[in-house]
């Protein structure tokens, strides 16, 4: 008889790191226009907001971080370059990070995106051996 | 006569993404112990805090985000694994991110670290040609 372990979940979360280029400068110049988009992304992707902070740079430029029960979402804008740098990091259901990311692509309409998806805590196996069911083959 | 351009700065910021393993569980279990370390890292590395938010998970676990004039610093802990996932993202002087990171390694004393250093907005050349000095050779 052989034993086989169930497929194990590796890591504690998914982190999408994205730089959006070619975004409308006026859209990303102010927290007034950016914050409703960010808040809507959190809501759309069913994430749990703990708090959010925004900062208006003078004359133009905006930053914000949303602390989530599932980790965080953050952005920083450079209207002079049409650039938004975005991070969406969630633990739990990995589709939530992807949903928030897709929502932001849809609303900010970058002409190009450079993105990386990273597993955080990738050495962690959330199913400790004592919780893994042995399956007889 | 040839012309040579000065070395150009590429990107808008440096993002250090680090997962710390083997950290003392009690140290990372509470915002009460984590927040002074995070605030001290910001001060040590001469970063400019705009705001900070922390969240205490029950029974154990802590998260926090610091919005900086230079971007952000964030952490999330899993005391049950001795894990801290850390992000230090700064624009301007790249040594500030490295200083904050080194400070946190020193205070949290992980037994191992997995780290990536990413240039954010790497398609941006902050020295537009009109600002670049021509040097005769």
Tell me about this structure.
The structure is a homodimer of 137-residue chains. In chain A, 23% of the residues lie in helices and 41% in strands. Chain A is of the alpha+beta class and 137 residues long. A six-stranded antiparallel beta sheet of chain A has the order 3-4-5-6-2-7, with helices on one face. In chain A, strands 1-8 form a two-stranded antiparallel ribbon. In chain A, β5 and β6 form a beta hairpin. In chain A, α2 packs antiparallel against α3 (95-108). Chain A is globular, with a radius of gyration of 18 Å. Chains A and B meet through β2, β3, β4, β5 and β6 of A and β2, β3, β4, β5 and β6 of B.
- Quick one: biggest sheet of chain A? 6 strands, antiparallel
Averaged pLDDT of chain A: 90
Strand content of chain A: 35-45%
How would you spell out the order of helices and strands of chain A? Answer: EEHHEEEEHEE
The end-to-end span of chain A amounts to 7 Å
* Total strand segments of chain A: 8
Radius of gyration of chain A: 18 Å
Uncertain segments of chain A of ≥5 residues (pLDDT<50)? 130-137
The largest sheet of chain A has its strands arranged as 3-4-5-6-2-7
* Count of helical stretches of chain A: 3
Largest interface comes to: A-B, 34 and 34 residues
Shape of chain A: globular
Oligomeric category: homodimer
Helix content of chain A: 10-25%
Broad structural category of chain A? alpha+beta
Provide the fold topology.
The structure is a homodimer of 137-residue chains.
Chain A: E1 3-5, E2 13-21, H1 25-28, H2 31-44, E3 49-56, E4 62-68, E5 71-78, E6 83-91, H3 95-108, E7 112-120, E8 134-136
Antiparallel strand pairs in A: 1-8, 2-6, 2-7, 3-4, 4-5, 5-6
């Amino acid at each position: 008889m052989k034993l086989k372990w169930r497929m194990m979940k590796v890591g504690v979360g998914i982190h999408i790191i994205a730089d959006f280029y070619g975004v409308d400068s006026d859209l990303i110049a102010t927290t007034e226009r950016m914050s409703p988009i960010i808040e809507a992304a959190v809501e759309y992707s069913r994430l749990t907001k703990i708090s959010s902070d925004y900062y208006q740079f003078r004359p133009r430029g905006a930053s914000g971080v949303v602390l989530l029960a599932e980790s965080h979402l953050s952005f920083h804008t450079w209207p002079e370059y049409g650039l938004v740098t975005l991070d969406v990091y969630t633990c739990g259901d990995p589709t939530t990070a992807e949903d928030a990311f897709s929502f932001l692509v849809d609303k900010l309409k970058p002409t190009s995106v450079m993105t990386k998806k990273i597993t955080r805590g990738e050495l962690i196996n959330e199913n400790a051996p004592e919780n893994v069911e042995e399956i007889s083959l």
